[in-house]
Amino acid sequence: MDHLKLKQEQTKQYRQTGFTLTELLVGALVASLTVAAGMKLSQVIVKNNKQSERNSAAIELADSAIDQIQQEIRNGEQLIDVESELPKGCDTYKQQGIEFLFAVDIPDQAMSLGAYDISTGKPDLKAVECPIVYGTVGNTEEIKLHRIGTNINQFGYYTADKTSNTEILKNISKSTNRSLTCPSTRWKHIKRGGIEVCIDQRLKRMAKLTITVNNGRDLPGITAEGSTTQRQGSAMTEVMKQDAVAGANSNTVSKCKSGSGCNFGGQPISCDKTSFVIDVSGSMGLGGNTYSWPGYRFRYKNGRSYVDGGPNSRMERAKRELLRAIDSCSDDAEINVTSFSSGGMWTERTAWTSPQKLTASNRNYLRQLIQGMLARGGTDPWRHTHRMVQDQKVKEVVLLSDGGTWTGGSVRLGGKYYNGEYAQSYKSYNEEFRKDNPIKIKTVSFGGGNYCGGGWMGRLADMNGGSCVVAP
């Protein structure tokens, strides 16, 4: 009996711990569904990763295309947005079925580093006969962007005598995902499928550009500014400020020659009661590397020494740029020029106490004054800037310097003393005494340094209605 009872207990335990057939079938079904769901999830993840990679690749290609256009505009002299303005014989792209979008006029080019040697009198530069044209092919589901123009060799030089047609981007959408808004009515809006361009009509050297590619996503707006030197964003910043702030230039009228570009070191100017303030400290004589170490010589004039770095020194380049800028101003423009150094230094010069009209005799006088500028002394722009800020006949101060200086102290403006940073003192004076005729201060950080942004030149301009440009 005990043995039989033990058997019955064991059978009961087996029945309690085992699985029925139904339970086994249900368990198998659940397991298979879990595995299937996991496999499906893995497929979705792999698919999404591949789509993300495709999207990233498309965006990267489009970004590269815009970067290329951006750099080309910087290298150029001017943008062309009307097909009829192309030089004669520069429309061969039409035979290839390409529709004109815009073009970039390229300056004369050096074919090698040795071309910059001016020992023979001038650089050996080759003319680029035709501007670089950007155009499109296709107008249905896919648009392609082409570049037609001079090639670039492995050393980064434009080959003036060799041109080609290059497809720089495809898979461009037939429409934009979002519309590009131009800063103001003074910008021309061009739309071609998924490509939108805004070109400033004043300088013809700035553009905004967006491209929508056929991956369901559009690129963010990327701005490009054309210049032959490193002035990225500077002229664009100035024009954008003028467009963004209502009435920012209500007291300023451009007095520039038509199509002149009208800028100084990349800094847009109005030529309307403009005072140029130019650094002639000793460091401005450097940078030419024409002579043996240390790259400059001390020379003498009337028994007084100055720093001479040769024809490509900062001083000589600034003088050439200033002469060019003044030549871009019309005859009814009012201009003044002041050179600054240390207090009392013999190299300082001022043409007049206030801006004067550019009569023939006044132009000749300014040329002589500028050509006679010599570099020696320290960097003190403030004495002259204090005076100009208070001169109601001055509307625009354009200051160029290559070095650092102290940035504040106590100054008497309009009969009131201000203490602290000069940039802030000028701003306060503008708001209190020149509210109806505010003076605008623009700056050019010259010679390879960068005093824009949070530097003294950047703060001076930003706080007084202007912008700061970095020029080499």
Summarize the structure.
The protein is an alpha+beta fold and 472 residues long. The protein has helices at residues 2-17, 21-75, 234-244, 314-327, 360-371, 382-390, 422-433, 456-462, and strands spanning 78-80, 99-105, 109-110, 125-126, 132-137, 143-152, 158-172, 187-192, 195-200, 206-211, 222-225, 263-264, 267-268, 274-279, 297-301, 304-308, 334-340, 349-350, 356-357, 396-401, 408-413, 416-421, 440-446, 468-471.
Q: What is the overall pLDDT average?
A: 79
In CATH, the architecture of the largest domain is 3-Layer(aba) Sandwich
Radius of gyration: 33 Å
Which percent range fits the helix content? 25-40%
Strand percentage lies at 25-35%
Number of strands: 24
> Structural class from helices and strands?
alpha+beta
**Distance N to C terminus:** 111 Å
Low-confidence stretches: 216-250
Q: How many separate helices?
A: 8
Sheet of most strands: 7 strands, mixed
CATH class categorisation of the largest domain: Alpha Beta
Please tell me about this protein's structure.
- This protein is of the alpha+beta class and 472 residues long.
- It folds into 2 domains: 57-226, no CATH class; 235-471, von Willebrand factor, type A domain (Rossmann fold, 3-Layer(aba) Sandwich).
- It has 8 helices and 24 strands.
- The protein has helices at 2-17, 21-75, 234-244, 314-327, 360-371, 382-390, 422-433, 456-462, and strands spanning 78-80, 99-105, 109-110, 125-126, 132-137, 143-152, 158-172, 187-192, 195-200, 206-211, 222-225, 263-264, 267-268, 274-279, 297-301, 304-308, 334-340, 349-350, 356-357, 396-401, 408-413, 416-421, 440-446, 468-471.
- The strands form 7 sheets. Strands 14, 17, 18, 19, 20, 23 and 24 form a 7-stranded mixed β-sheet that branches. It has a 5-stranded antiparallel β-sheet with strand order 1-2-5-6-7, covered by helices on one side.
- A hairpin with a 5-residue loop joins strand 9 and strand 10 (206-211).
- The longest helix has 55 residues, at 21-75.
- The protein is extended, with a radius of gyration of 33 Å.
